[in-house]
């Protein structure tokens, strides 16, 4: 890893503050409340736009996903950190992404949105954070027992690593053109609900390019920051996570969007048990996959096809969650969602115990 200002102590604090402030500001500009940027929620919206599910309220090609990839690609290319590679247990990574998404949609938010919910005064977000901490702790236990998905290998064909940026540019073209491939077919755009709550496209795109650029430079990772500080006593990334929350709080207070309560929070439910358990699954899956959803997206932009596979698992998991009634609503989790979380935890625990680094 090449050193830069953003990998210094002051740099990670500044990076976290900028990302948190911009993410909160996107809600001011029109994105859903406490959801300025949520990689899981926005991947769900993308899945809906492409017709992988038909939940009409959550269908939109989110420019934030596109912008993060563009920004991270530019950053990694400029610093010569763009290295196409892959081949590290792709099937397992796919299902880790799949179950991470299920956990996130039962909670109603990924680790990024967990922090944004807390920064907006949503007490339910604290229980999600507790779940992430527990899941991260279980993941650290497995890492200390020589858990490994195997090493990635560099590709001779460098063009393979361009897949994420090519996909992103195609999605941008579909977003701007709003093309319909058939009368009742994709591309779908929500006319009500969270999918219809959107900051202007150019603002979202520019802000997310900045976030992607800074996050790539700083290696910003929410799950990594929480995990490292609590279980490894390494507070470097934790400083960035704390700065993220503080900056988002400042933006919310300044714009009169800070409201401390459990009840009537935007796109949230108050089931404490399943807010915790669902995020144990999400925290564990992201830890076993070596990065939070934002980090996975950024690593894919660096040419890491293993991270792209993880993101594709999230995309399919989002479609599956809404097609099979696994995703929660403001009324709370569904019985199907609860069982899916349990199955996901069993899968992750089996993977944690059985995938070991082999020393020849």
Task: List its salient traits.
single chain; Seleno_YedE; transmembrane; 360 residues; Sulf_transp_TsuA/YedE; two-stranded antiparallel sheet; YedE-related selenium metabolism membrane protein; 62% helix; mainly alpha
Structure report:
Keywords: Membrane, Transmembrane, Transmembrane helix. This protein is mainly α and about 350 residues long. It has one domain (about 5-355). The protein is built from 14 helices and two strands. The chain has helices at about 10-30, 40-50, 65-80, 90-105, 110-120, 125-145, 165-175, 200-220, 220-230, 235-255, 270-290, 295-300, 305-325, 335-355; strands at about 85, 155. The longest helix is centred in the middle third of the chain and has 21 residues, at about 125-145. The radius of gyration is 19 Å and the shape is globular.
């Amino acid at each position: 890893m090449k050193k830069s200002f953003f990998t210094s102590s002051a740099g990670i604090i500044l990076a976290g503050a900028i990302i948190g402030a911009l993410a909160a500001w996107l809600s001011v500009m029109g994105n859903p409340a406490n959801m300025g940027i949520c990689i899981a929620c926005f991947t769900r919206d993308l899945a809906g736009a492409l017709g992988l599910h038909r939940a009409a309220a959550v269908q939109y090609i989110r420019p934030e996903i596109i912008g993060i990839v563009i920004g991270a690609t530019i950053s990694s290319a400029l610093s010569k950190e763009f290295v196409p590679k892959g081949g590290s247990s792709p099937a397992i990574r796919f299902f880790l992404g799949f179950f991470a998404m299920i956990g996130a949609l039962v909670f109603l938010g990924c680790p990024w949105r967990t922090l944004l919910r807390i920064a907006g005064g949503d007490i339910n977000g604290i229980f999600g954070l507790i779940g992430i901490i527990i899941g991260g702790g279980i993941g650290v236990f497995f890492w200390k027992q020589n858990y490994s998905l195997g090493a990635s290998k560099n590709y001779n064909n460098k063009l393979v690593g361009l897949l994420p940026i090519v996909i992103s540019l195609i999605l941008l073209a579909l977003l701007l053109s709003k093309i319909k491939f058939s009368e009742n077919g994709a591309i779908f755009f929500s006319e009500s609900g969270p999918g219809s709550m959107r900051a202007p496209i150019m603002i979202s795109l520019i802000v997310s390019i900045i976030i992607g650029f800074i996050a790539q430079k700083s290696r910003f990772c929410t799950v990594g920051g929480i995990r490292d500080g609590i279980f490894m006593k390494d507070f470097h990334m934790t400083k960035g996570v704390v700065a993220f929350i503080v900056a988002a709080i400042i933006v919310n207070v300044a714009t009169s969007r800070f409201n401390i309560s459990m009840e009537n929070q935007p796109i949230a439910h108050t089931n404490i048990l399943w807010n915790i358990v669902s995020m144990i699954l999400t925290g564990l899956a992201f830890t076993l996959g070596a990065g939070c959803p934002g980090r996975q997206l950024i690593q894919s932009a660096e040419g890491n096809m293993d991270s792209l596979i993880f993101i594709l698992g999230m995309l399919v998991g989002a479609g599956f969650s809404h097609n099979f009634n696994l995703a929660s609503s403001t009324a709370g989790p569904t019985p199907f969602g609860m069982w899916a979380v349990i199955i996901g935890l069993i899968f992750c625990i089996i993977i944690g115990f059985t995938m070991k680094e082999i020393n020849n």
